[in-house]
C-alpha cells in the first residue's frame, strides 16, 4: 500500500485576476434564499476564490452508493455565474456515520488502545485500506462529475491532514508501520543497529515482532519513536498521493493541494518533505489571542510557510476574521488587526487570503468561530472589515507572483524537532523553537526578513545562516553548512545542535558533534538549568535554560575567539559565545539561551559580521518586508502594529491609497509602496 510520487503540474495555480480572496464556503448549511444572498454579498466583498464541499460527504452520499449532488451543482453554477473560482474538495475529511458504523476498523486508535469514535471529525486512520477504498471512490465520483465545470480552478484534497490525531496505533497501522520499516531498513539486523536495541534487551528477531510505540512501563526506544513520527507523516502523504492519483487521471491539468497547518505549534507532519507533492502550498494559520506579540508569531509562521513553499507564492487557505472558538478565551480581533494580519501574510509571500469560513454557522461545534459574514450580517464591523480587505487586495494586483527578499536563512527541520523533544534528554524544558523564535523576533524587530530552509537546501545567496537546536543532522547537511561559512557566510550554531545523526546516535568525541571542527570548540558536558535559574555572561548577558562546559580547540589555527564567558560557578571563565574565522566567512557558537536583550545584542553583531541591514530605514515598531517581481520592480510593506505614527524612508506610490507615499504610516495602519 505505497503510492508513488506524482509529478507536480507546472502550470500556474492562480487563475483569478490579481490576488485570490475568499474562504471555506458551506452552502449545504443554508437554505436557497441564503445561498442566493451569499452570491450578492460575495460580489460586494470582492470574493474570487472559495473552497467548497470540504465536510460534505454525509450529504453527498447519505447512504452507501446513493448520491445527491443537486445542491453542489447549483452552488458551483451560481459561483461561476458570479465569476468566482472554486477550490473543490474531495469531501473526505470526515467519513459519514454509515461508513464508520459499517467499518469501525477505520477509526483511529490511540497509544493507550482507545478507539476514537465518530461524532466529531477526522475520525479515520490513513492506513486503513477500507477507508482508502471509499475515499478514492468518493474522490473519483466528484472528479468525474465536475471535471469540466468552468468554476473548477484547484483541487482541495481532504483537509488539515494530521489535525487532532497525528499518530495511529491500530492493527492495520501496526502492519503498515512494519512494512514501512522493512522498506526503510531492508533487514532486521540493520534496524536493530539503527535503534540500538542491544540496550535494555530490545533486540528483534523479525519485523513481525515490532509494534508502534505505545503505553509502556517507562521511556520508549528513541529510534523507534523517531521512526514512528516519520512513518505517521509518510502515511498521510501516501494517502494524499492515492487521492491525487485519481485526480490526475480524471483532471490532468487541474492543480491540487491540501491545507497545511504550518505554525509554531504544529509538528505532526514533515511539511518540507510534503512540499514536492503539492502543486501550490496552502496553509491554515490562527493567532493565539492571549499572546501579546501574536503578530510576531504570525510573521514566524508565514515565513516558515514560505520556506516550505521554496520561496514561491502560497495560499493562505484559512485564518479568522475575528475570534475563534477553540481557545480557552476567544477574544475578537482588535480594530484594524484583521487587515494588518491579512496583509502580513501577503507581505511574507501569500498570493491568496482566505478565511474559515464564508458565513458563520448557526449550529455545530464552530458556530462561535468568526466568519466573513457574521451572525449579525452586513451591519457589523466584521463585515465592513471584510469589504475593506477585499478593496485593499484588489489594489495589490501588481504584487502577484513576486517573491520575498531575504539574505538571512534559518535552518529548520521537522525531524530535528521530533528528535530534540524526545524523553530522556538533558532537559525536558528544552523546546526546539526556543532559540529560533528568539532570533526571528530580534530580526523582525530590526526590519530583517528571514527565510526558513531545510538543512539539505542550497545556502548560496545567504549571508547569515542561523542553526538553532539542530539536534539531529546528517553528515551531508553539516558539510553543506560548513561549506557556506567557508564561502563567506556568517553561521551561528546554537546549543544542542549536531549532537546525533539521523538515527539518533550520539556523535562521539565531544559536543557539538557534527559542528566541532567548523566551530573550533568542544563541549565535554551539558549543564542544563532548572526552571527559574539563570547564568550571567561576562558581557552582562543573562542566559536561561542551558549552559555547558565548552573548550576552545587547542590545535594551531583551529581554535575560536572567545567573545563571552560564563561567570557563575561551576562554569566561571568557560566560553559561552565564540567566533571562528572560516574561509571568507565565520562560524559562531552560542552555549546558552540569552534573554531578549542578549539575543538582540548578539543579533546586531551577527548582522554586522554578515553585512546584512534592515529592509529600509524606519522608526522602531514598524514591520517591514519587501517583495520583488521578476522585472525588478519592488514593493515595500510597512505594517504599523503600534499606537503611534511611524516614519519610513521610502519613495514611491502607495498602492492602498493610490497617492504618493508621504513617509508616514499611521498608527495601526498599513502602507504598500511601489518603490521608485
Key traits:
17 helices, alpha/beta
Topology summary:
Blueprint: E1 20-25, H1 32-45, E2 49-52, H2 57-60, H3 70-81, E3 85-89, H4 97-102, H5 129-146, E4 152-156, H6 171-185, H7 188-195, H8 222-250, E5 256-257, E6 259-260, H9 271-274, E7 282-284, H10 294-308, E8 314-318, H11 337-347, E9 350-355, H12 381-394, E10 403-404, E11 408-411, H13 414-420, H14 434-445, E12 450-453, E13 464-467, H15 475-486, E14 490-494, H16 516-519, E15 521-526, E16 535-536, E17 542-544, E18 548-552, E19 561-565, E20 575-582, E21 585-590, E22 593-594, H17 596-610, E23 622-628, E24 634-640, E25 646-647, E26 652-654, E27 659-660, E28 664-665, E29 670-675
Describe it for me?
The chain has 676 residues and is an alpha/beta fold. Helices cover 30% and strands 18% of the residues. It contains 17 helices and 29 strands. Strands 5-4-3-2-1-9-8-7-6 form a 9-stranded parallel β-sheet, covered by helices on one side. A 7-stranded mixed β-sheet has the order 12-11-13-14-21-20-19, with helices on both faces. Strand 20 and strand 21 form a beta hairpin. It is globular. The model has no long low-confidence stretch (mean pLDDT 95).
Amino acid at each position: 500500500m505505497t503510492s508513488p510520487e506524482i509529478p507536480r503540474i507546472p502550470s500556474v495555480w492562480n487563475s483569478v485576476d490579481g490576488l485570490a480572496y475568499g474562504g471555506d464556503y458551506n452552502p449545504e448549511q443554508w437554505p436557497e434564499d441564503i445561498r442566493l444572498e451569499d452570491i450578492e454579498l460575495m460580489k460586494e466583498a470582492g470574493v474570487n476564490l472559495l473552497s467548497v464541499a470540504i465536510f460534505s460527504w454525509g450529504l453527498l452520499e447519505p447512504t452507501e452508493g446513493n448520491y445527491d449532488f443537486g445542491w453542489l451543482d447549483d452552488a458551483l453554477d451560481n459561483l461561476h455565474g458570479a465569476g468566482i473560482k472554486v477550490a473543490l474538495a474531495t469531501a473526505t475529511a470526515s467519513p459519514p456515520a454509515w461508513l464508520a458504523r459499517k467499518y469501525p476498523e477505520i477509526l483511529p486508535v490511540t497509544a493507550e488502545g482507545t478507539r476514537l469514535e465518530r461524532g466529531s471529525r477526522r475520525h479515520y486512520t490513513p492506513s486503513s485500506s477500507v477507508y482508502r477504498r471509499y475515499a478514492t471512490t468518493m474522490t473519483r465520483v466528484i472528479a468525474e462529475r465536475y471535471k469540466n465545470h468552468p468554476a473548477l480552478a484547484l483541487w482541495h484534497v481532504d483537509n488539515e491532514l494530521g489535525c487532532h490525531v497525528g499518530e495511529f496505533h491500530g492493527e492495520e497501522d501496526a502492519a503498515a508501520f512494519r512494512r514501512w520499516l522493512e522498506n526503510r531498513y531492508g533487514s532486521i539486523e540493520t534496524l536493530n543497529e539503527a535503534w540500538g536495541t542491544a540496550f535494555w534487551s530490545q533486540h528483534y528477531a523479525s519485523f513481525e515482532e515490532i509494534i508502534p510505540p505505545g503505553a509502556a512501563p517507562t521511556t520508549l526506544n528513541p529510534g523507534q519513536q523517531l521512526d514512528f513520527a516519520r512513518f505517521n507523516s509518510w502515511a498521510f502523504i501516501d494517502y494524499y498521493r492515492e487521492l491525487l492519483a485519481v485526480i490526475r487521471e480524471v483532471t490532468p491539468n487541474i492543480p491540487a493541494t491540501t491545507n497545511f497547518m504550518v505554525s509554531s505549534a504544529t509538528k505532526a507532519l514533515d511539511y518540507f518533505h510534503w512540499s514536492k507533492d503539492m502543486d501550490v502550498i496552502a496553509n491554515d494559520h490562527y493567532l493565539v489571542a492571549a499572546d501579546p506579540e501574536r503578530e510576531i508569531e504570525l510573521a514566524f509562521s508565514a515565513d516558515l510557510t514560505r520556506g516550505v513553499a521554496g520561496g514561491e507564492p502560497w495560499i493562505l487557505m484559512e485564518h479568522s476574521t475575528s475570534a475563534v472558538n477553540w481557545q480557552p478565551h476567544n477574544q475578537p480581533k482588535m480594530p484594524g488587526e484583521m487587515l494588518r494580519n491579512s496583509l502580513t501574510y501577503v507581505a511574507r509571500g501569500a498570493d491568496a487570503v482566505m478565511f474559515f469560513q464564508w458565513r458563520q454557522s448557526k449550529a455545530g461545534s464552530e458556530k462561535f468561530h468568526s466568519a466573513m459574514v457574521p451572525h449579525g450580517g452586513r451591519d457589523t464591523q466584521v463585515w465592513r472589515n471584510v469589504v475593506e480587505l477585499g478593496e485593499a487586495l484588489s489594489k495589490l494586483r501588481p504584487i502577484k507572483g513576486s517573491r520575498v527578499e531575504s539574505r538571512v536563512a534559518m535552518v529548520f527541520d521537522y525531524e530535528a524537532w521530533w528528535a530534540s523533544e524526545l524523553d530522556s534528554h538533558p532537559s525536558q524544558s528544552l523546546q526546539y523553537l526556543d532559540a529560533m523564535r528568539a532570533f526571528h523576533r530580534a530580526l523582525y524587530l530590526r526590519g530583517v526578513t528571514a527565510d526558513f530552509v531545510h538543512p539539505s537546501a542550497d545556502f548560496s545567496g545567504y549571508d547569515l545562516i542561523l542553526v538553532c537546536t539542530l539536534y539531529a543532522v546528517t553528515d551531508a547537511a553539516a558539510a553543506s553548512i560548513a561549506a557556506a561559512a567557508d564561502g563567506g557566510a556568517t553561521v551561528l550554531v546554537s546549543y544542542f545542535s549536531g549532537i546525533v545523526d539521523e538515527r539518533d546516535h550520539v556523535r562521539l568525541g565531544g559536543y557539538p558533534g557534527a559542528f566541532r571542527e567548523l566551530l573550533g570548540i568542544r563541549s565535554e558536558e551539558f549543564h542544563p538549568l532548572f526552571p527559574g535559574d539563570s547564568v550571567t555572561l561576562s558581557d552582562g548577558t543573562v542566559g536561561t535554560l542551558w549552559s555547558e562546559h565548552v573548550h576552545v580547540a587547542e590545535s594551531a589555527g583551529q581554535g575560536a575567539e572567545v567573545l563571552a564567558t560564563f561567570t557563575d560557578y561551576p562554569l566561571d571563565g568557560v566560553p559561552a559565545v565564540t567566533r571562528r574565522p572560516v574561509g571568507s566567512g565565520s562560524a559562531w557558537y552560542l552555549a546558552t539561551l540569552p534573554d531578549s536583550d542578549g539575543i538582540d545584542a548578539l543579533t546586531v553583531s551577527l548582522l554586522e559580521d554578515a553585512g546584512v541591514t534592515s529592509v529600509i530605514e524606519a522608526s522602531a515598531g514598524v514591520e517591514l518586508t519587501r517583495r520583488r517581481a521578476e522585472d525588478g520592480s519592488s514593493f515595500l510593506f510597512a505594517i504599523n502594529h503600534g499606537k503611534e505614527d511611524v516614519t519610513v524612508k521610502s519613495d514611491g506610490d502607495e498602492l492602498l491609497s493610490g497617492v504618493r507615499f508621504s513617509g508616514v504610516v499611521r498608527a495601526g495602519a498599513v502602507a504598500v509602496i511601489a518603490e521608485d
